[in-house]
Amino acid sequence: MNSALDMVFINVSDEVGEQAFSEIQTLAVHLEKMLSCFDPEAEVFQLNQKAINEYCLVSSQLWNILVECNRFRKSTLGYFDIGLQKLKELGKSNPSLVLSSKSMGMETIEFSEEQHSIKFWSENTGIDLGAVGKGILLREVEKVLSKFDILNCFISFGGSSIITRGSHSHGPNGLYRC
């Protein structure tokens, strides 16, 4: 995800803040190790290498993410598509191929529900969860905030994905006077 994760906890003890931070950091590292299409040890990287024309088992957590992304693809008529990891690479070498090709994207990924495995029908297919990785992490961060009963906070992941909780310290109107 390659982004800074800034967290401000308000009215939280140092001990609770450190515990919450530690859990969030662990979650971020875990998700990066699963979702990265650049780290050779990451599950998505390995799927992109191995799933061409053969079924590959997918961890339970990644399976749920892929199924959810497939639902989003269908509900957006294909505009949301995590199966276009190779699009940028192909587009640089042959822009007309990208515009005319239907042999890429999630439509070329076969899901085996029984085995929790996937297969790519095209060598032009590759999974890239970078655009949704921040949201996936922030959804998990919400659970940590609830677990530690953190009611007031500001969390920014890369400046583009944000969680806020609580109210302004100067009242419900949010008026602040200097």
Structure in words:
There is one protein chain. The protein has about 180 residues and is of the alpha+beta class. The chain has one domain: Roll (T-fold). Helices cover about 45% and strands about 15% of the residues. It has six helices and six strands, in the order βααβαααββαββ. The strands form two sheets. A three-stranded antiparallel sheet has the order 1-5-6, with helices on one face. Strands 2-4-3 form a three-stranded antiparallel sheet, with no helix packed on it. α1 runs antiparallel to α6. The longest helix has 22 residues. It is elongated and about 55 Å long.
Domain module tally: 1
Query: What overall geometry do the principal axes of the alpha carbons give?
Result: elongated
Strand content: 5-15%
Distance between the termini: 38 Å
The CATH topology corresponds to: T-fold
CATH class: Alpha Beta
Q: How can the largest sheet be summarized?
A: 3 strands, antiparallel
Keywords:
178 residues; T-fold; 43% helix
How is the secondary structure organized here?
Blueprint: E1 5-9, H1 14-35, H2 43-50, E2 56-57, H3 60-75, H4 87-93, H5 95-100, E3 109-112, E4 117-120, H6 130-147, E5 153-157, E6 161-165
Antiparallel strand pairs: 1-5, 2-4, 3-4, 5-6
Provide a concise account of the structure shown.
With 178 residues, this protein is of the alpha+beta class.
